[in-house]
Design goal:
Layout (H helix, E strand, L loop, with lengths): L17 H8 L13 E3 L5 E3 L2 E3 L2 E4 L6 H6 L4 E3 L11 H10 L3 E4 L11 E5 L7 E4 L5 E2 L23 E3 L6 E19 L7 E9 L2 E7 L6 E23 L6 E9 L12 E4 L3 H14 L5 E6 L11 H12 L4 E5 L13 H14 L4 E6 L18 H13 L4 E5 L14 H21 L8 E7 L2 E7 L3 E8 L7 E7 L14 E5 L4 E5 L3 E6 L4 E7 L9
């Protein structure tokens, strides 16, 4: 029987008192983290290390030189590895440095990692669901033409005149379009790319089945340029050769689109592309099989893009419904990355962190779920740095608790920035301070966060913003965790209602008393099983409700 398995350990944590757990859970810089003997998944969808619940707080893909910063910000795990990181010669050597830094590792599979005391889990290749375009429309390059994989030649027949393909060098460039059956063409059209520094095609010879059919004389401009043939040509193979150019600063140039029209005006060489995932579910299933066959003692992580959420519209509903359950079947722990500000420059999309976590939690069944959280601006796809909106401590804290309220039992941070220059741990000073505070709180409250969630024990009504919350019955008390995730950043007045009938039989509280507001040096009264509080925009509130009776199990 493999040591990694879904455990059936009942509803309550079998750990020591909260203070003891915290005193042993976080090593100082001079200490080593407890060596891992086994990793299981508990009944509350929590990872358990050596039988104890563990909340992974991860950094993504870090050079060993950043490990002190990772640890200083309160993280306990690093995920991912690329060959040669920090001068390491292997993932095993890298994991050794992870261990020396007092961290755990979530690593790509390697035989040499089996039984490593710092190995928390394995991880699939990143974002297997990332869409990529492919085309069945073949375009053959002549010998000597240097190809650019980022601008595939099939874009010249994809029907999108804003896409383009590099021809390098442009002078004498030749491409051929083969077709499965002969077609009859009356007219050709060309769309050129005219950008500063590029060479531009001015004459293109057109051949049909190896015979010269026409020469297209083109202007140095954008837009469609049509060439009517003296008489129709029928062929199954068309070749286009650039015979004259306007030279630019660069040897290369581009043709955005070529079309060939029949008598009815149909583009007979059109080949629209289609979207496929970076890796198919079948490929991930094979990868999972190999990992589990090689080492069944550790769970396997898989990170998705946010495209399982319908907000982005990247995959049709029927594709999402088929794709993601198949992926999830090939993982033991699943997560995702949505960066509303860093990735999209849209703070108004912050609510997606909660919604996507809740959706993935539903899809994941009894698997743990994690969310990657943004930590600053400096993204490569959101325009000039001066136009990028700030990711503030308030955003980070709210997103962390949105994820937890949505069902996450693990948190990761994406710390890479590309602007003003690339750095793997480009977290601003004020956000590093916030991470220390947030992660200290996560570590202190991990036993409560990972305790049994009692959905029937808590309900709430809200005036103003949108609030998400959950209640757990921990070993020492009942906890309520809540966040205002309203994208319009409205404040919210919330009334919580407690229902003892939704608690496990070993948990009890009185309908009268007080709820301690954690880390705020105040409490709110409980009257008739209800208590109220005000949430500022993106505000987080954490409550501790002491037990008043603890009936023994079975009474």
């Amino acid at each position: 029987m493999p040591r990694f398995q879904y455990s059936r350990l009942g509803l309550l944590f079998r750990t020591a008192l909260l203070g003891y757990v915290l005193s042993t859970a976080v090593p100082s810089s001079a200490q080593s983290r407890e060596p891992i003997r086994d990793v299981t998944i508990g009944a509350n969808r929590e990872l358990r290390v050596n039988g104890k619940p563990f909340l992974p707080i991860m950094a993504w893909l870090q050079d060993p030189g950043n490990f002190p910063a990772v640890r200083d910000c309160g993280m306990n795990t690093t995920a991912g590895y690329w060959r040669g990181s920090g001068g390491t010669r292997s993932v095993a050597e890298y994991l050794g440095q992870v261990q020396e830094a007092g961290l755990y590792g979530v690593m790509p599979y390697d035989d040499a990692l089996r039984g490593h005391p710092a190995l928390l889990a394995y991880i699939h290749e990143d974002e297997p669901d990332l869409p990529r375009q492919v085309s069945d429309g073949e375009v053959i390059a002549s010998p000597g033409l240097r190809l650019n994989s980022r601008t595939p030649l099939w874009r010249m027949r994809d029907g999108d005149t804003s896409s383009w393909s590099v021809l390098d060098p442009l002078a004498e460039a030749e491409i051929t379009i083969p077709l499965p059956a002969p077609v009859t063409v009356r007219r050709f059209s060309f769309w050129l790319t005219t950008s500063p520094g590029l060479s531009v095609a001015r004459e293109i010879e057109i051949q049909a089945d190896g015979q010269k059919a026409a020469v297209a004389a083109l202007e140095n401009r954008r837009g469609e340029q049509a060439v009517d043939l003296p008489e129709p040509v029928t062929a199954s193979r068309f070749t286009f050769r650039v015979v004259r150019i306007d030279p630019g600063d660069n040897e290369w140039g581009s043709i955005a689109e070529i079309a060939a029209y029949d008598a009815d005006g149909k583009n007979v060489i059109l080949a629209p592309p289609r979207w496929i995932p970076r890796q198919t579910p079948e490929q991930t299933a094979e990868s999972y099989r190999r990992i589990r066959q090689g080492d069944a003692s550790r769970p396997v992580f898989m990170t998705f893009t946010g495209y399982f959420h319908p907000h982005f519209g990247k995959w049709p509903e029927e594709v999402r419904d088929r794709l993601y359950p198949a992926y999830i079947a090939s993982a033991d722990v699943v997560g995702f990355d949505i960066y509303p500000i860093y990735g999209w420059n849209k703070p108004e999309w912050i609510h997606l962190v909660y919604e996507a976590t809740a959706q993935l939690t539903d899809l994941a069944g009894n698997r743990p779920v994690y969310a990657w959280i943004e930590t600053g601006k400096g993204g490569q796809y959101t325009g000039a740095l001066e136009n990028q909106k700030d990711v503030t401590p308030r955003h980070i804290e709210a997103e962390v608790w949105m994820a937890l309220c949505g069902g996450a039992t693990g948190i990761g941070y994406f710390t890479h920035v590309w602007k003003p220059s690339y750095h793997q741990f480009g977290v601003p000073v004020e956000n590093r301070e916030a991470l220390r505070r947030i992660n200290d709180r996560l570590t202190r409250l991990a036993p409560a966060i990972l305790a049994p969630r009692c959905k029937g024990a808590l309900s709430w009504t809200t005036t103003g913003g949108k609030v998400a919350a959950f209640l757990t019955a921990a070993e020492d008390a009942i906890y309520v965790f809540a966040v205002n995730y309203d994208p319009k950043e409205q404040p919210a007045d919330v009334e919580f209602t407690l229902d003892a009938g939704g608690l496990p039989p070993t948990a009890a509280f009185t309908a009268e008393g007080a709820a301690l507001v954690i880390d705020e040096k105040r409490s709110v009264p409980i009257r008739g099983g209800k208590f109220s509080d005000r949430f500022e925009p993106l505000g987080v509130r954490l409550y501790r409700l002491p037990y008043t009776e603890r009936p023994e199990a079975g009474q």
